[in-house]
Amino acid sequence: MYQFLDIAYFQNQFIPFQSATLSIATHALHYGTSAFGGLRGIPDPHQRNQILLFRLDRHCQRLSQSAKFLNYDLSAEAIQSTIETFVQKNRPQSSFYIRPLVYTSDLGIAPRLHNIEKNFLIYGIELGDYLSPDGVSCRFSSWCRQEDRSLPLRGKVGGAYITSSLAKTEAVESGFDEAILLNAQGKVSEASGMNIFAVRRGCLITPGADQDILEGITRDSVIQLAKEAGIEVIERPLDKSELLIADEVFLSGTAAKITPVKQIENYALPLDRPITQLLRDKLTAITENRDHSHPEWIFKVQL
Ligand code: PMP
Questions:
Q1: Per the CB 3.0–4.6 Å rule, which of 70, 93, 162, 299 could disulfide with 56?
Q2: Which parts pass through the membrane (predicted)?
Q3: For residue 30, what pLDDT is reported?
């Protein structure tokens, strides 16, 4: 199981993780009325007593926007300063993942977002690789990615993850590692918790923000790094068949980082992945503070 960081932020206090518990009647547990974030950090390999957080500002902005969809006013600045204190209290010793969550914390029934208490909590886990860095096998899900007219897909809202969970379990129980979801128009949208990229004839193609994707922060970083490396990036609707004959396919996400796809259904993808490799090496070097080309992406927390 996961190794949890010792201290959690819960009900406006920093307390031991084990003591941070909720009632079984908590509203969000019943209706998925929550929204969460997920960001990575590492102890600075070059400087003791310093923790590096990747794109903290963007993660806090996205969570603040997600909170807005829940009728909860929580500023990005408030989230950011609480996360900084959370890191100082925990003094993590190895690579970790922070999970901030906003949720309807009232006890009681009736789905709604008005006239109901909300709250904000944070916990963390130690986290190395989430998916195999050597590559994963994927299947197309029989479940379709939700549409933005059904729920706010630009928020990372808890209830949306029933579809991700159905798709992931369907994939794993049928012998694959991951699921690729198509949207209601039948175009490629994303994986269960990652965005997707394909390389065709040297161009990097990824479904645009209008394809019912979560606007991933890793996706945004990958697009910027590719453009800086002189790779043409095209954001456009992507067909299922294009993935099957792509030169390279990879998934991007905070937990998954850049994970190559080695197989989709019964189609094997080439093992030579120069663009995936280049982008992965670059992103890793930046997150580990070995490459200083994007200092604005690295937030330093002093312990
Ligand atoms: N799509 C979904 C559904 C996700 O849960 C995630 C993970 N947050 C992503 C894409 C990738 O987003 P990010 O790069 O910001 O982690």
A1: 299
A2: none
A3: 97
